[in-house]
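FAQ
Q: What does a multi-component entry look like?
A: The components come first, one per line:
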Amino acid sequence: MNSSVITFPGSNCDRDMDVALKKFGFKNKMVWHNDIVLPKSDLVVLPGGFSYGDYLRCGSMASKSKIMQSVINFAKSGGKVMGICNGFQILVEAGLLPGVLLRNKYLEFICKNVFVKINNKDNSYFKNIDKETLELHIAHNEGNYFCSKDQIKKIDDNNQIALHYSDKDGKINENNNPNGSLKNIAGIFNKEKNVLGMMPHPERMIDSSLSGEDGSIFFKNLINNLK
Amino acid sequence: MIVNENVALDHGLKKDEYKKICNLLKRVPNITELGIFSAMWNEHCSYKSSRLHLKNLPTKGTRVIQGPGENAGVVDIGDDDAIVFKIESHNHPSFIEPYQGAATGVGGIMRDVFTMGARPIANLNSIHFGSPQHKKTKNLLRGVVNGIGGYGNCMGVPTIAGQTSFDESYNGNILVNAMTLGLVKKNKIFYSKAAGLEKPVIYVGSKTGRDGIHGASMASAVFDEKIEEKKPTVQVGDPFTEKLLLEACLELMSGDSIIAIQDMGAAGLTSSSIEMASKGNLGIEINLNKVPCRETKMTPYEIMLSESQERMLIVLENGKEDLAKKIFDKWNLDFAVIGKTTKSKKIELYFDKKKIADIPVNILVENSPMYDRKWKKNKLPKKIKISKKQFKNLKIINVLDKILSNPNICSKEWIWQQYDQTVMGDTIQKPGGDAGVVRVHGTNKAVAASVDSSAIYCWAHPLSGGKQIVCESWRNLVCVGAKPIAITNCLNFGNPENRENMGEFVECVQGLGEASKYLDFPVVSGNVSFYNQTKEVGIKPTPTIGGIGLIKNYENMITMNFKKVNNKILVIGKTEGRLDQSLFAREILNEKNGPPPEINLFNEKNNGETVLKLIENNFIKAAHDVSLGGIITSIAKMCINGKKGASLKKPKQLIDPFEYFFSEDQGRYIIEIEENNFKNVTEILEKNSVHYDDLGTVNENELIIDEKSKLTIDELMKSHTSWLTNYMGK
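Then the predicted structure of the entire assembly, as tokens:
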């Protein structure tokens, strides 16, 4: 399986993603934002970080990078594109996913472990995962998902919510919403489910010495589903 | 502008210093030259009050590759890997503008580390605020935490440990000390010593603006009511540009183009160019028209004194300019050849084709003032007599509840949740433990780091206090299973021109030196911050120690949380029960006098080494040192972190339970071991003459001190975690 991780100026989880993908069997290539051609890939990842310093609106400058046209074309032709954290913000700004990511409800950066409930397993990202909830890690300042009423209706109708923030047992309520996201949304798909954006970082949970191992479950499953 | 004595005084120079400048130059300096002198000769850059005393610190050791004098210290961690690390203060700017002050503090220390070729792998910080009731404290705390997070998070370097304290002596002068660790291969370390003649001098990074002019001078003076006017002297940080600068520098460093490199920190282009020339025993010539400027019509004076951030000065090999420029273009950073090295041994500046400064480098560096300031010796205070009658109305569980929720003990989760602790994917111990731990990427090794300070002890008796912090740093590293290697220090004090403050400095440094020598825990880098004073009121002496240690196999790392029900709990080290200067005496009995805990370096070393031996033999399941708040506070934290309880026995010794549980005697640890290892462990302890108490066992969910004194884990957690979040109004 071939994967590509795009490095934008200010990306800082690109190496972590490279390490995780390789650990679970992907042949990964790092791609510079100024390149035009995307290498042959089964998966393209937009990593976390602070592309262009998040100075304008998170992800907005990166969404106009040269490589993004190729990423958009790849996604439109059904290619798998995954955006983590800042990558999620870039996907939203690029118009590949609906909605926006606002500043966290308490206007503070949040770094901690959270539980997420998988809402839709009928896709390459979560199919065959035994568990209903995963323990993942978040680290962001702008993860407060929001969209219009029409948009959320469409999202619901098409079953586009990937992950909800929840408690350990999958209960979804305000107490386990870390950032004020609409409907506790932690991740969403496009209509076709080949593009996934999520705030949590599975790449930080890939061995027992780290914050946890549920990221390993995610990646192991992902490569098997893509084979 | 005509330069005279008054202009020199306005620049913070003293009368005799100005006279010395005129004598050395054999003429009156022009305004640019005077600016350069004032930047190089202020306390912050010249260490004129501290140099004499810092000389006595132990700086050598088998693992030391580079001691003080470079951008940061470097130690060997085996297999051709080295750790570059340093701590630095950004106190004055953080009080004036907390967000930018703290942010640029973090940016500055990371630059010091990657200037040496190392990729930063961990950040730590030690921050100190005034009384929680003081009107400025809340906003300062919020601003500083936002600033530290804003910079470090964007850079993608995890913040793995820290320390926060509150004391009214910081009401007018907060402290922000930032520390960074970087990883480098031993043969790829870069230094600031220029070499070779006619080599191009390159400017890279951000453009130069008017921010931060005279920042270093501002940090070398006492605050007064005009402090708000000093806002323009605070630099403005741009972590995005620094991230690009980091990647561009490391890319250039992977080749062999660089002869010397120095970041532009305090006193900007002035100190970076002069330091490189001085270390290389060369001259340097700069055309200031070539310096990339952010604003129009900047004068040579402003260009030389600007402290705009995210800039580097590099001496390149001839012919490497194009290659270097290509890399900086790729990262969208400014790149300019601004001058060359010369044999003149002078700093020569040109602007609009005129020579506007001409100063021999040695005058600025070697001839900079050094003072043997008068200082007053501090006597050991008399021990206080605490009548046990006072304990009659106290209940241990109520006291424990108060202590756990004390601002200086309570959980700082509200703070560290705002820092990215896990980026880079190697953080294996996060904030909240005895030390933060990161793996050395791709190896079995890990590096532990901790920051500590005990201003109360240093204030009560500087010599003991100085020793104590080094010991505490050592203990914190031992607790996570790391062999302590070396330290960096950030010495925060009041006005050195005042005999009392100078005495505190001299004796803290003496204590610090004695302990680090005894423990073979050398000082490899550091920074002095004087003038933490507003009018007549100075801070309590606050030397901060950043210690690092090595864990050879990260799977053997220890954490403090209790692991398994029925495991045994031992106290390592002897409890004498002295309460003077303990949190219990100060906060519960309202007794602020007396000497700090006594330091016995032999016991400290012996106890720590024996604990490490037990860890090597895999006997220890959890460990935590006994510090502020005494044994019971340590046990409570181990319960909270492990979500387990503990059933304690009545201590055998005939001392009062309050004395036993709340005294802050040094050199002690709490360890958890499996019951069937009890004999093996106690044999090792006895063989090494280490005192221990068998204190009880781990249980499901309740801290049971005796039949009448019980607290559930939920209760403990509530008292420990609620104060700060409530205080910050969430």
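Q: Is there any commentary attached?
A: Sometimes. For this entry: The mean pLDDT of chain A is 96.
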